[in-house]
């Protein structure tokens, strides 16, 4: 997202303009409800009650809804069944539609509760994006239309998450999990007091609570840690939403829509400085969506990495980890990882590079039976020994590490997928994440 064009800078949260100068009478709150929180009419009613309570507290509310859980997957499958090489514009037209249903149903439910509400599809706002179908980036959210309605007495704008409109006037979507990003972008564009992400867990945990029953809920987590956890697979927030919240200083909370109405503690995603004490490792993330590709016997010469990774980048393959193996008689094996659904694209690009004589290799072996497990923590900046502790914990369980990458605040390893749960639990134990410092 580009700051200036974004239009999100129109009313950043720090700019404490009085609400009536913005055209609205009340402070604004953004509340996002994920798929499980709107999975049935009964759950929509429960979510609407929470919204009604915030209206009673004096807020004008922007509600962002996901599609009912399972709905987007179903739509993606329908598209896949039409053929292998479908038009990305029509993919977006289809998969965005789940959110239209829940937005209308939420508005109707609120109206039934005598809360003045109206639904908005992305194009009606309009939420303007670029043209990168299925992974579009938000460019601008002009607040005028919705603010004018708030000015006329509407109390809740229910916006279909995940969708926008391209400069060509086509419907776009923001990538899976994109409603989180819709929510944060609205909070930034409208200078909302807070952005509350209601989901099926009561906050951000030290690891996915579905994998480890020892996972502990964090009261606070730093933006940078959340960003790493999200990008390494913790799907509780879409990565882009965390980036936006960090950049536009959005006060971001993750909480459950299933608890008692007053049970709203959740997790606050905040600046590092706002956290008093934290463990060296904040959390463990995993991703099943990894494949390990090995080019067998490529020439070990200057320029070989560029000759391999240039064509992969051009083909849109998101290479994550890279290892070059020991060279023997001027030849070496090059291993890299990429998302599983990009394996075919990577193979095609490498074959084309071989055919054109840019590179030469004996074979390309794809291993899709792997997963990536990562530990993340700002404390790693000042603590040595996290990597060795991680490797020791995995080795104690007999888990072989295939590829390793590190950055300032994270260490990731690629391992056999059958060890995923075991690895996550072993690392959670080893770094003592069950209890706070
Ligand atoms: P929604 O439909 O509300 O957007 P998601 O399924 O996208 O919900 O995200 C919530 C899920 O994220 C949880 O059910 C949980 O299994 C998973 N998750 C993964 N890692 C974490 C973590 N560290 N903390 C909390 N939840 C996590
Ligand atoms: N419904 C979309 C998805 O399942 C967007 C979202 O829920 O955030 O990916
Ligand atoms: Mg989600």
UniProtKB/TrEMBL annotation:
It holds the Pfam family ACT_9. GO terms for molecular function: aspartate kinase activity; ATP binding. It is an enzyme of class 2 (transferase). One of its GO terms (biological process) is threonine biosynthetic process. Keywords: Amino-acid biosynthesis, ATP-binding, Kinase, Lysine biosynthesis, Nucleotide-binding, Transferase. Substrate binds at residues 72, 99. Residues 1-11 have a biased composition (Low complexity). It catalyses: L-aspartate + ATP = 4-phospho-L-aspartate + ADP. GO terms for cellular component: cytosol. PANTHER family: ASPARTATE KINASE, ASPARTOKINASE. Belongs to the aspartokinase family. This is Aspartokinase.
């Amino acid at each position: 997202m580009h700051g200036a064009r974004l239009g999100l800078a129109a009313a950043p949260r720090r700019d404490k303009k009085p609400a009536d100068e913005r055209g609205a009478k009340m402070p604004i709150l953004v509340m996002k409800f994920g798929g499980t929180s709107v999975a049935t009419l009964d759950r929509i009613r429960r979510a609407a009650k929470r919204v009604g309570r915030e209206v009673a507290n004096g807020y004008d509310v922007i509600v962002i809804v996901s599609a009912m859980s399972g709905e987007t997957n179903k739509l993606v499958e329908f598209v896949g069944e039409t053929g292998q090489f479908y038009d990305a514009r029509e993919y977006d037209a289809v998969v965005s539609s789940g959110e239209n249903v829940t937005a209308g149903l939420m508005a109707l439910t609120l109206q039934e509760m005598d809360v003045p509400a109206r639904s908005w599809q992305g194009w009606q706002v309009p939420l303007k994006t670029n043209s990168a179908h299925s992974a579009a980036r938000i460019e601008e959210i002009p607040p005028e239309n919705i603010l004018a309605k708030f000015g006329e007495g509407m109390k809740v704008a229910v916006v279909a998450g995940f969708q926008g409109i391209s400069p060509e006037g086509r419907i776009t979507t923001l990538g899976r999990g994109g409603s989180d990003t819709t929510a944060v972008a609205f909070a930034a564009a409208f200078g909302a007091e807070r952005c509350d992400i209601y989901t099926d867990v009561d906050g951000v945990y030290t690891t996915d609570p579905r994998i480890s029953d020892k996972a502990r809920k964090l009261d606070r987590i730093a933006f940078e840690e959340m960003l790493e956890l999200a990008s390494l697979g913790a799907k509780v927030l879409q990565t882009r939403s965390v980036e936006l919240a960090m950049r536009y200083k959005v006060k971001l909370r993750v909480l459950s829509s299933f608890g008692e109405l007053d049970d709203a503690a959740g997790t606050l995603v905040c600046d590092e400085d706002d956290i008093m004490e934290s463990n060296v490792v904040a959390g463990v993330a995993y991703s099943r969506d990894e494949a390990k590709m090995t080019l067998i016997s490529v020439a070990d010469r200057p320029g070989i990495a560029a000759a391999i990774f240039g064509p992969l980048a051009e083909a849109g393959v998101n290479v994550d980890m890279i290892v070059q193996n020991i060279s023997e008689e001027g030849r070496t094996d090059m291993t890299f990882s990429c998302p599983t659904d990009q394996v075919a694209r990577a193979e095609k690009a490498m074959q084309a590079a071989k055919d054109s004589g840019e590179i030469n290799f004996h074979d390309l072996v794809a291993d899709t039976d792997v997963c990536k497990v990562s530990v993340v923590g700002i404390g790693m900046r000042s603590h040595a020994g996290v990597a060795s502790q991680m490797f020791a914990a995995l080795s104690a369980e007999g888990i072989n590490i295939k590829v390793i990458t590190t950055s300032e605040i994270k260490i990731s390893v690629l391992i056999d997928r059958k060890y995923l749960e075991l690895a996550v639990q072993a690392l959670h134990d080893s770094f003592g994440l069950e209890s706070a410092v």
